[in-house]
């Protein structure tokens, strides 16, 4: 009888200790979760806009800024339109910088002020294809969908079809589009061979012989 009482008391103590440990673990988890700060996508897109404003404006191309960041929001690389020679695009520049400066991260996301291009008339690799070559890029955040000023773009559809997440950061669409079209910048006419070019809506000349299209 005494042995049975001892065992019963021991079992109660073990159960109490386990419950106490579980309660402490639950409290620790709750405290950790409460310290997690949600990623401020709008802030990162605003930074991408500031980068886009560094682009030299030309009437036949958009001015775009791009940021490659960790999923927690730490910036790894940046780029803007025509930052490097050869009519380079913002996402292209940011990717090239990261590939040449350090080992690639296990996982990253892209913030770009405009939907990445899915086609370049020159035959150069599109920004969507460059992103898809980087398996560590898991998601793209865009400030605005690309308007049909120059080419039809299916960047969002191609990324999602390949399993890359795509999200529009709402609230900055007008500003992203304004910066892309060089609003507030000195507008310099650009002509093609023999002074001829193809004029799009708004009177901007688009030179088809040179790859000045997209972001």
From TrEMBL:
It comes from Tuber melanosporum (strain Mel28). Residues 183-203 are annotated as: Disordered. One of its GO terms (molecular function) is catalytic activity. Residues 183-201 have a biased composition (Basic and acidic residues). This is (Perigord truffle) hypothetical protein. Residues 39-157 form the CMP/dCMP-type deaminase domain. GO terms for biological process: nucleobase-containing compound metabolic process. Pfam families: Inv-AAD (PF18785).
């Amino acid at each position: 009888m005494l042995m049975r009482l001892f065992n019963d008391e021991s079992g109660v103590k073990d159960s109490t200790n386990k419950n106490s440990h579980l309660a402490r673990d639950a409290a620790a988890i709750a405290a950790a979760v409460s310290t997690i700060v949600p990623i401020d996508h709008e802030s990162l897109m605003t930074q991408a806009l500031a980068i886009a404003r560094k682009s030299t404006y030309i009437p036949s191309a958009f001015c775009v800024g791009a940021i490659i960041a960790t999923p927690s929001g730490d910036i790894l690389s940046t780029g803007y339109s025509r930052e490097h020679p050869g009519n380079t695009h913002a996402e292209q520049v940011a990717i090239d910088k990261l590939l040449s400066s350090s080992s690639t991260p296990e996982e990253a996301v892209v913030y770009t002020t405009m939907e990445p291009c899915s086609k370049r008339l020159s035959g150069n690799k599109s920004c969507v294809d460059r992103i898809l070559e980087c398996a560590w890029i898991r998601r793209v955040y865009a400030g605005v969908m690309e308007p049909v000023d120059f080419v039809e773009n299916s960047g969002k559809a191609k990324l999602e079809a390949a399993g890359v997440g795509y999200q529009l950061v709402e609230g900055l669409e007008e500003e992203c589009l304004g910066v892309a079209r060089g609003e507030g910048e000195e507008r310099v006419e650009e002509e093609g061979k023999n002074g001829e070019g193809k004029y799009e809506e708004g009177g901007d000349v688009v030179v088809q012989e040179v790859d000045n299209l997209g972001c």
